[in-house]
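Late entry, written up from scratch paper. The run itself happened at the end of the previous shift, but nothing got recorded in the book at the time, so transcribing now.
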Amino acid sequence: MLKDFKPFTTNLMGSMPRTQEVFQAQDDLKSGRIDQRQYNQVIHDETMKVVQLQEKVGIDVITGGEYHRDNFISFVAQNVPGVSMFSTEELTQITTGEHQEDFAESLAERDADDHSMNSPAATGKLDVNAEFVLPEMKELREMTKKPLKATVPSPYLLVRNLWVKELSGKYYSGRRDLAKDILQLVRNEIQRLIDFGVEVIQLDEPILAEVCFASNDAARSFY
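Output as recorded:
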């Protein structure tokens, strides 16, 4: 990893706006008009354009634009055994009692109560040795000679999103128990990224503000 950067080193936060080609490929894959191989080729080509754009404008550290990811966390379900995807409507139906009220409130706070998004949940013991970011970096390394940045969802973010008592509780005694595996999962991936030579590793924690600004009498800082 790089130890020194010039003043005002530039890089993208992570994702780039989806292109029309990416949206079309996603629709085509879901409808069966293209297969996974064809979809991967479109994503590869669009990622290459993102890399070339960054190089053209002089960005110092390159990211792939996260075109391989449905969103900043759901892609984990595609790569880590023990994690499955659900619509928010499905999760609302799965949760029960007080837990359902907490879940509905959490969705509303995140402007997700319209059931328009998907979310991952732990539905088995996590494979803590699964690679979920490194494959993107291997592809990216073939596209540029510039330093790379990997974006990794933080353990806190993963615990917050993956724990659904009615599903995860069959395999873990609670959030803390699940957190142990998530910490190991993230540690293992970060070590692989370091060994591969990724120069910058960014832990994504967009809900940290919720911890900082939670009320003093809050029962917990995350759902």
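Residues 69 and 198 are 19 Å apart (CA to CA).
(Scratch paper discarded after transcription.)
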